[in-house]
Amino acid sequence: MSGSAVATTPGMSAVGTPTVVTRALRKEFGARVAVDSLDLTIYRGEVFGLLGPNGSGKTTTIRLLCALMAPTSGSAEVVGLDVETQGERVRARIGYMSQRYGLYDDLTVAENLRFYSTVYGLHGEARTRRLAEHSCALGLDERRNQLAGTLSGGWKQRLALACATAHEPEMLFLDEPTAGVDPAARRDFWTSIYALASRGTTILVTTHYMDEAERCQRLAFLSRGHLIALGTPREITAHFGQASIEDVFIELQRQDEAQYGVAVGGSR
Amino acid sequence: MLWKEFIQMRRDRLTFGMMTVLPAVQLVLFGYAIQTDVRHLPTVVLDESRTADSRQLIAVIGNTGNFDIVGAVADREHLRREILGARAAAALVIPPDYARDLRAGRTATAQMIVDAADPQASSAAMAGAQLAAGALSTQIVAERFGVAPPLEMRVRPWFNPAQRSAIFIVPGVIGVLLTITLTLITSTAIVRERERGTLEQLVVTPIGKTSLMLGKLAPFMLVGYVQMSVVMGLGKLIFHIPIEGSLPLLYLLALPFMFASLGVGLLISTIAKSQAQAMQLSFFFMLPNILLSGYIFPRVAMPEPAQWLGLGLPLTYFLKVLRGILLKGVTFGDVWQPTLSLIGLAALFLTISVRRFRKTIE
């Protein structure tokens, strides 16, 4: 199945207006092709999982969709805007949270929130009101004067999510958001994610936890820059005749290794 | 962005200390300690003449201020031991026939031995001894023959009549401090953002790359201006450095220098992978700045390759501007050349570093 996507029919959730549309998206770094002929459509309010081993092109895909780098060829539209020509406007309407959280350890919880909301263009009265609601909803109020550097992993994650969503983005990118967080915090985190999605925020998440992958409404498997499977978790397990997403992941990785004859999991 | 930088600066004790205490320490340290004009060399005397004439010579040498007569020695061996033991750095030897020769109208000789292991420390002293002896000699001739000296050279040291090192050094401290703030502190601050992943986070916000850089760099320029004012104020208060020229002109001409230094800082931040590396690279850059820019050692005395190297340093030109405006009260017409060089270096460093920086955040 060299390169051709094993596309399955879109699941039940995949109806409505598209938030992300990519057409033949391709990105090269020198001689290496990081993302190749990627066609993806993600719909409004969807929780969409992007899976694949390290180096499969997940991070590059997110960086392309966040308008951080220009595609070599092909195109991508996010929230109805072309990422290549309208990058700055795209970035104003999306949120991004990385594995490293991007918090300032030497600022307090409230200062981090204030800073990021200002960078996203919130000011004055509106900002004060929004931040008050927001930090209350996420339970950050009690720790508002604590330095971010002294928070535990779960709290940092909560704050990072608050910083990424204070401007009420239409699209939220989560790059391995739950690495190194305890199960209880992960469960709370997913509750927040579903609350955001139910209010119409589209979510794209990458993860290495297969139980989290099964929580996504639809999944895409990437391998060496190619889309090799797309569908609901149930469709994908059925298609590959495996019991769980984890088994599918291991099976795909095995095939991948057999095809290329090298171990997967090198540098990104 | 500005607001955040200032909160962070205040919270980071080490950086805050570097920015507030360092200027004061540098000023006092360099202002007081760096005395390139060596005075008060401890001196012993071997007076084998023991006459009014020999005592007159000793008094003249002592009055130069270059030599402090700390004692008398009995013989050459004793003299040698005093200098070897570093209890004396100079010795005046007056032979037994000094007064006799002088009275007889022959040329009387005396000897000045100076520990010249450190040429910088000894050269001023040796010149001082020559001058004092010359003056005494002229005076004796004038007394004996009742004629006026045929030639008198009147040396007028402009801009620093008392020949104090501090007047020369303090303007330099301003330049060195700005270099530290704008390269070392700036580069580590940027590298820290990258290490912590906050740079990545900022790049995905709608804030443009240009305003991101401006927001990151502008606070340090502000700090630079504050440091400059503080050092100038303290310099005036403690060392009475003159401020002859126009301060607005100085603040204006500091701008291209700051941009050039920021360019270097930004460049370092794109090369260094960790804060420690940024720190090392910055110190590596500081060394030639202190040695080759003319901050302490005069550039004209350097071998040519060292002088060429110095031409690549923004500080070299800024020192000319600083000293020109502060000490000599020059106007723009006198410093347009170093200013032009500063603008050129600023454009060069900023272009390279901004291009590299854009690449690293993609």
Topology (SSEs and partners):
The complex is a heterodimer of chains A (268) and B (362).
Chain A: E1 6-7, E2 18-29, E3 32-43, E4 47-51, H1 58-65, E5 73-78, E6 81-82, H2 87-92, E7 94-97, H3 109-119, H4 124-137, H5 153-165, E8 171-175, H6 183-198, E9 202-206, H7 210-213, E10 218-223, E11 226-231, H8 233-240, H9 245-260
Helix pairs in contact in A: 3-4, 3-5
Chain B: H1 2-11, H2 13-33, E1 41-47, H3 52-63, E2 67-72, H4 76-84, E3 90-94, H5 98-103, E4 111-114, H6 119-145, H7 165-196, H8 198-203, H9 209-239, H10 247-271, H11 275-292, H12 304-310, H13 314-328, H14 332-360
Parallel strand pairs in B: 1-2, 1-3
Antiparallel strand pairs in B: 3-4
Helix pairs in contact in B: 2-7, 2-9, 7-9, 7-10, 7-11, 7-13, 9-10, 10-13, 10-14, 13-14
Main sheet properties of chain B = 4 strands, mixed
Widest β-sheet, arrangement of strands of chain A: 1-11-10-4-9-8-7
The general outline of chain A is globular
Mean pLDDT of chain A: 84
Helix content of chain B: 55-70%
Distance between the termini of chain A: 23 Å
User: Overall pLDDT of chain B, averaged?
Assistant: 86
Estimated structural class of chain B = alpha/beta
Question: Are there runs of chain B of 5+ residues with pLDDT below 50, and where?
Answer: none
Radius of gyration of chain A: 19 Å
The portion of residues assigned to helices of chain A is 25-40%
Give the percentage of residues in beta strands of chain A: 15-25%
Q: For the record, give the distance between the C-alpha atoms at the N and C termini of chain B, rounded to a whole number.
A: 20 Å
Please name the two chains that share the biggest interface, counting residues whose Cβ lies under 8 Å from a Cβ on the partner chain: A-B, 28 and 20 residues
**Secondary-structure element sequence of chain B?**
HHEHEHEHEHHHHHHHHH
Write down how many β-strands of chain A occur, each being a DSSP E stretch of 2 or more residues: 11
Structural class of chain A: alpha/beta
Count of individual helical segments of chain B: 14
State the assembly state of the protein chains. Answer: heterodimer
